Amino acid sequence: MQIKQFIKLKDDLIEIADCLLSLAEAGENSVYRYSQVVYDSIYLDRGRKNVNRYGLTSTYNVEDIDAQVFSSVRGEELFPSNLLQFEKWRERSETPYIFTYKGISLPTHQDVRFDPLPTNFERWDDELLAFTDQFKNVRITRDFGVEQRVIVNSSGGVTIESRPFFGLYYRQGYEPYLVTRSIGAYVKSNEDINRIPRLIRYLPDPTPDRSINSASSFTEAFENLHAISAEVEFETLEDAGLSDTLTHDVIMLSGVPIHEIFGHQFEEPVYPLSVGQQSLFPIGKNVQNPNLALRDNPLQTIEGLDVMGSYQFDSYGRQAREKVLIDRSKVHEHLGSEYVDVKNLKTFIGIDRSEFIGNARQGYEGSFPQSRMSCTILEGREEENVSYTGKVIMIPFHGYVLDGNFFKVMSSECYYIDPDGIPRRLGSLEGSRAIYDAIIGMHILPGKSHHIGSCSKPNVLDDGTDTEVMVSFYTNHQLWEHLTIRSV
């Protein structure tokens, strides 16, 4: 295991924390952070280990809240012996900011979470390698790594974490007919690694007999997926006998549109708002659909595993908790960090003062922390008797809001369920509708999907760059009424 030599021991992280704490306590109202990710990544295609990559990324940054200055350096490991040199380096990158501080006291608790390192993460490599030798248009990526973080503040708060993770990414074909699946979680034992195949039952599965979800191995699941998705039978909706202009009821087997179209609306911005800018989901808003519940849970587990995107402490060392965004038709909470535009808060979110905290996250590149989702969850009252026959199924890979009220959702993997209940693959589709209308007309169906990914968002201190965090989606299947869809 070549990456092991780069993973810091618990005592190493504690020593770094002690050094940073001495710097933080010498000033007032400041946060010092060091993080590193060590990884082993292998790409499998055509029966080859195409790329076997080992790496380490690291960042060190300081947020001086009173002076409103942020500085960050990256690319080198931090040790107590080179901290003073890092300080000189960091001071040359100081960037002022003008965000309004909420003034909530920094945490004072001290916590250490150091998870053991599994050793059996390569156990499926040969099996997956053989699969790609048989199915030539498939690439599978296996990731294993360890995230390590140290966060200290001037109030004496200390957070130390070391968390191994495992991820598996399936890619079949190419745009515009790409098929993807992802499985992964944080793992802290060989038993956790052995538990990973249980997540197969949460892969998006359009087959009538759930042959993908019921598979006993990754290769069986991927072979069943390949069997129904390898051939695009209908390039357009009209080829399948469906109108290319009218609206259709669409079944979503993915949480991507929930995250992208609805979830981002609940991330409280730290930067000054534009005049007249308003949230689509202010506190107390009646969304006129009592049958669904939308939450964000950084403590989510599935099959006994901590999902990707989860965390116990945010970037200020604040204890994470589940946030209820929508329940019983009402908007309850937003995701918040340490800063918010107080002047425009009433107009934007419908409240005079925000005390939403605990959702600040940094990307691996050490960007300024801001409110970000973790695991987006959609559940609710399930409707048992909805027929899939005659309907379009979409497994979207992307979605976005157009002008504050309308959205688009894109899917390169789509199916039409014929009268015999057989999924027949369609070409790529694009769907759109007004956000309010979509949520009013949404039905919660039995069956859940979970997948992992990364989410990009503009860096609040560096125009033109994005910051990326790991997220996941754990959602019931959904029926979206009257979605306007077209072939693309």
The poorly predicted ranges are none
H/I helix tally: 8
Task: State the end-to-end CA separation.
Answer: 45 Å
Largest sheet: 13 strands, mixed
% residues in beta strands? 35-45%
Mean pLDDT level: 94
> Any idea what the radius of gyration is?
23 Å
Q: What is the global morphology?
A: globular
Structural class: mainly beta
Q: How would you describe this structure to a colleague?
A:
It is a single chain. This protein has 488 residues and is mainly β. The chain is built from 8 helices and 25 strands. It has helices spanning 10-24, 83-91, 125-134, 190-195, 218-229, 256-262, 345-349, 435-440; strands spanning 30-45, 48-64, 69-74, 95-96, 110-114, 138-153, 158-172, 179-186, 247-252, 292-296, 301-302, 305-307, 323-327, 330-331, 360-361, 370-371, 375-380, 392-394, 398-401, 406-411, 414-417, 423-426, 429-434, 442-458, 466-487. The strands form 3 sheets. Strands 9, 10, 13, 14, 17, 18, 19, 20, 21, 22, 23, 24 and 25 form a 13-stranded mixed β-sheet that branches. Strands 1, 2, 3, 4, 5, 6, 7, 8, 11 and 12 form a 10-stranded mixed β-sheet that branches. A two-stranded antiparallel sheet has the order 15-16. The protein is globular.
Produce a short descriptive summary.
Helices cover 14% and strands 38% of the residues. It is mainly beta. Strand 24 and strand 25 form a beta hairpin.
Name some characteristics of this structure:
488 residues, mainly beta, 8 helices, 25 strands, 38% strand
Topology:
Blueprint: H1 10-24, E1 30-45, E2 48-64, E3 69-74, H2 83-91, E4 95-96, E5 110-114, H3 125-134, E6 138-153, E7 158-172, E8 179-186, H4 190-195, H5 218-229, E9 247-252, H6 256-262, E10 292-296, E11 301-302, E12 305-307, E13 323-327, E14 330-331, H7 345-349, E15 360-361, E16 370-371, E17 375-380, E18 392-394, E19 398-401, E20 406-411, E21 414-417, E22 423-426, E23 429-434, H8 435-440, E24 442-458, E25 466-487
Parallel strand pairs: 5-7, 9-18, 17-25
Antiparallel strand pairs: 1-2, 1-6, 2-3, 3-4, 6-7, 7-8, 8-12, 9-25, 10-13, 10-17, 11-12, 13-14, 15-16, 18-21, 19-20, 20-23, 21-22, 23-25, 24-25
